[in-house]
Write a structure and sequence with these properties.
heterodimer, A: 408 residues, 2 domains, 55% helix, B: 260 residues, alpha/beta, Rossmann fold, six-stranded mixed beta sheet, four-stranded antiparallel beta sheet, globular, binds adenosine-5'-triphosphate
């Protein structure tokens, strides 16, 4: 049996070699499909590693309160993608944050009031992310300062802390302590610079390196449309965290006289919105890649049919000298399999090369796992069988006498 | 018992019909034939009388519409398609008028083709094919492609392919039809040698001069036998090489060898 398979493999290989260009182009069709699937799987893999590393980074004692609607996941994702005013409907207030702070098992609370504003320092940044929060933010986010201090309670002057990248944009240096900037007509003094985190995807949906941090109460005074979009909470004790979550929910429902348009999240739930968005996108991409793979498969079938027609006489000769149905069937099936598996390997190399190039300019490092390699291999094999079956049957079913009369 | 053993092919009222009803035509009609081991049969007859059809059926490439075909005393209708294929690769060698070499394969691979389907390793296939080609004086052309050979050389390569797996029956359909007289003579000498080794040969030809090589000449007409003349007695037929040791005592074998 092994010898028979080896013989068929040799036969298939030699007939593919006779048509190198054609074989290569057919392979290439499969390779493109496989490369896109590899690319998507690799991106998916690296993003979910990023997300889960964040969950472990933020710790199991973090609770987040977000405004929410009763829409389903897809609708809210679409909302998130299409509206720049995604936060404006928030029903959270500074008062909610103060209420939560008094509850059992709550160690610290930081509200987040995010707005996009123009900033004027040495240079003008027309749309910068301004985060209104309180001194607890630094501790809750586990952030460190590069220099200076963070926001202080009851500070007499308007103080601001700046992300390293934004500092560069505004002042051309990452040491702007003592410099001033204008926000909504008010003057703020920079008192601290955050260490770079280089983590644009996080549960706050904020690029902290590109943000300015000011006191939420100060911001509230100068911007009356300001709303709290998120409240971050650290629990004292992880064990009773589910009870704490329930307690927060009940307290807020009571305070808002029955309004339930908010959600209290902890653990993996926190990163969920990003996760949903990303699985929808990668699902769509996977379908597109799947289609291109099917197109590649049709290419294989097409070429195999041409090859069977061209080699009718050869099939007749082979049958006359002793080839059985199975012999001819396997020879042509192997040809299709070699094409698709070779295409699969080629595609894997392409896909990972592109994933590597992408990793040079984005935080998504190539994600290689034996599952991906196995899936790719099995997919190419399946494509080979599915699209090679019909041509191989057609070849094996040829009548030897009429085939011998056929000179192609 | 011995009689039974000597019969390699037995056809009984074999009929091949094309079409149905009024449109029916018969390529073979109630064809009877018994072939003894070691016969060299030449089949002659006008074009369209069913010679090729007969060879195709004997060679298991085609099936009769009715009648029985016993190959080595076994009804062919009971042999599975898979075993028929194996018989084609091991026991039957085909030679065609138009050579039917595969144009994309070098001569040596063409010659070794039947061995592919009887389960030989590649190296053994090539060694065996090389030996045979040596015998046909084509050794130096092993790796030529078919189009690089003359017609006569191609037909000799095709004969090499037909005998490479040591078949018992050689079926040749006008093997000299495309060759000049010189090449024809070479090809006939090869067939004569193969026959003298005890193989059974059935050959179709239009050339009456070639009947000198045959032990039996059959003339066909409209799908049936017209005349059937044996020029050599059954007892004088050559004995297969592998059986000679057993029949050493038989006089006729010694005599045949002595002639050469
Ligand atoms: N596939 C087919 N369909 C219908 N009729 C066929 C078919 N093949 C052969 N025939 C008919 O069968 C008859 C015998 O054909 P065959 O090829 O055996 O002749 P032949 O004796 O070999 O002739 P030639 O000497 O010209 O080669 C012919 O009348 C032919 O028309
Ligand atoms: Mg004919």
């Amino acid at each position: 049996m092994a010898l028979l398979l080896k013989t068929h493999y040799e036969l298939a290989k030699s007939s593919l070699k006779q048509n190198k260009t054609r074989s290569f182009l057919t392979c290439f069709g499969i390779a493109i499909g496989v490369a896109s699937i590899i690319l998507i799987l690799s991106l998916m893999g690296s993003i979910s590693t990023l997300i889960s590393s964040q969950v472990s980074q933020i710790g199991s004692d973090l609770i987040v309160v977000r405004p929410s609607t009763n829409k389903n996941a897809v609708d809210s994702v679409v909302d998130e993608l299409t509206s720049s005013t995604q936060y404006l409907k928030s029903n959270l207030t500074m008062k909610d944050a103060q209420l939560i702070e008094k509850l059992d098992n709550v160690s610290s609370v930081a509200p987040l009031a995010v707005s996009i504003n123009s900033l004027k320092g040495d240079d003008l940044v027309p749309s910068a992310t301004v985060v209104g929060t309180n001194p607890n933010f630094l501790k809750i986010q586990n952030l460190t300062l590069k220099s200076g201090t963070f926001l202080k309670e009851n500070s007499k002057t308007n103080t601001a802390v700046i992300g390293a990248a934004l500092a560069n944009d505004l002042y051309g240096t990452d040491e702007p302590i003592g410099k001033s900037l204008t926000l909504l007509g008010e003057r703020f003094i920079i008192v601290g610079v955050l260490s770079e985190i280089d983590d644009p995807i996080n549960f706050n949906n904020l690029d902290l390196d590109e943000s300015l941090f000011v006191s939420a109460s100060t911001l509230n005074e100068i911007d009356n449309s300001l709303q709290i979009q998120q409240i971050n909470i650290r629990a004292t004790n992880t064990d009773g965290i589910q009870d704490t979550v329930n307690l927060i929910r009940e307290t807020l429902v009571a305070a808002k006289s029955g309004d339930t348009n908010f959600s209290v999240l902890y653990g993996e739930e926190i990163t969920h919105p990003a996760g949903t968005l990303f699985s929808i996108i990668s699902g769509i991409l996977a379908i597109v890649a799947g289609i291109s793979l099917v197109v590649g498969g049709i290419g294989v079938m097409n070429i195999m049919l041409v090859s069977v027609a061209e080699r009718t006489h050869e099939i007749g000769v082979r049958k006359a000298v002793g080839a059985s149905f199975n012999n001819i069937f396997l020879q042509f099936l192997f040809e299709a399999l070699i094409l698709t598996v070779l295409g699969g390997i080629l595609g894997m190399i392409f896909g990972y090369s592109i994933a590597f190039l992408i990793s040079l300019i984005t935080p998504f490092s190539p994600f290689i796992s034996w599952e991906i390699v196995l899936i790719t291999f099995l997919t190419s094999l399946t494509i080979g069988v599915v699209f090679g079956l019909y041509p191989a049957l057609k070849a094996a079913n040829k009548n030897p006498i009429s085939s011998l009369k056929f000179w192609g | 018992m011995a009689e039974e053993n000597d019969t390699i092919i037995k056809l009984e009222s074999l009929t091949k019909r094309y079409g149905y009803g009024d449109a029916a035509s018969f390529a073979l009609k109630d064809f009877d034939l018994t072939v003894k081991r070691g016969e060299f049969i030449m089949i002659m007859g006008p074009s369209g009388c069913g010679k090729t059809t007969l060879l195709n059926i004997i060679g298991l490439l085609d099936t009769a519409t009715s009648g029985t075909y016993l190959l080595n005393n076994e009804p062919v209708s009971r042999i599975s398609a898979r075993r028929q294929a194996r018989l084609r690769s091991k026991k039957i060698g085909f030679i065609f008028q138009n050579f039917n070499l595969i144009p994309d394969l070098p001569i040596i691979e063409n010659v070794s083709l039947p061995l592919v389907y009887s389960g030989y390793h590649k190296t053994r296939r090539l060694i065996r094919a090389s030996e045979i080609l040596d015998r046909f004086n084509l050794k130096e052309k092993e790796y030529y492609m078919p189009f690089q050979l003359s017609g006569g050389q191609q037909q000799r390569a095709a004969i090499a392919r037909a005998i490479v797996s040591g078949p018992e029956i050689i079926l040749a359909d006008e093997p000299t039809g495309n060759l000049d007289s010189h090449s024809s003579a070479l090809v006939m000498e090869e067939l004569k040698r193969i026959h003298s080794e005890g193989n059974t040969i059935i050959m179709v030809t239009h050339n009456p001069n070639l009947t000198q090589y045959a032990t039996r000449v059959i003339n066909m007409l409209d799908g049936a036998i017209d005349t059937d003349i044996k020029t050599v007695k059954d007892s004088d037929l050559p004995v297969p090489v592998h059986q000679r040791a057993k029949k050493k005592t038989k006089k006729k074998t010694k005599r045949k060898r002595g002639k050469k």
